[in-house]
Amino acid sequence: MSIQETVLEAPVKPTVDQRQADFALNVALLLGAPVQAASVLAEGKLFGTPNGSNFKLQWGADDRGPLVRIEVMLPLMAQEISSDAVVRMFAVQALLMADLGWWLTSTQQGDMQLVSVHWYGEARDVVAAIDVANAVAATVVHSILVGEAQS
């Protein structure tokens, strides 16, 4: 098992139980979202923030209850990035992992995304991480696009 697999693995939670639903409701309320958003969050579906970021929650659990890891979608496709930007992206990835605990990757569809390497067990920590992720995502996109414009 690689280091990335060890860091990123957690028990999979296949169905929404009451504790997960309650956790999602607390996250929705702390985000200022309508109560109906809790089901979208609990099911791990894509959810938009007021500033335009899209994210979804990965659900896991341990003996204390639900755990959440955040995925933030970036408005970039992997194939849009030139080969010149690859070195820059590796540098960004190293900083993200070492300093912030975020992993820059792409989805199976080729969309770039940030994934938290941390699992959060408190709704307020999830919301704080989403706020940080919004800023980190904007910075990552800017660094890649500014570099692309200069290439």
Number of strands: 5
Number of helices: 5
N-to-C SSE string, H for helix and E for strand: HHHEEEHEEH
Give the percentage of residues in beta strands: 15-25%
Helix content: 40-55%
Query: What structural class do the secondary elements suggest?
Result: alpha+beta
How do the strands of the widest beta sheet line up side by side?
1-2-3-5-4
Q: Return the average pLDDT rounded to an integer.
A: 84
Rg, alpha carbons: 16 Å
State the major sheet: 5 strands, antiparallel
Report the end-to-end length measured between terminal Cα atoms: 37 Å
The outline comes out as elongated
Low-confidence stretches: 1-8
Summarize the structure.
The chain has 151 residues and is α+β, with helices and mostly antiparallel strands.
Structure description:
- By secondary structure, this protein is α+β, with helices and mostly antiparallel strands.
- The protein is built from 5 helices and 5 strands; from the N terminus they run H-H-H-E-E-E-H-E-E-H.
- The protein has helices at 3-8, 18-31, 37-42, 84-100, 123-150; strands at residues 47-48, 54-62, 65-77, 102-106, 111-116.
- A 5-stranded antiparallel sheet has the order 1-2-3-5-4.
- It is elongated, with a radius of gyration of 16 Å.
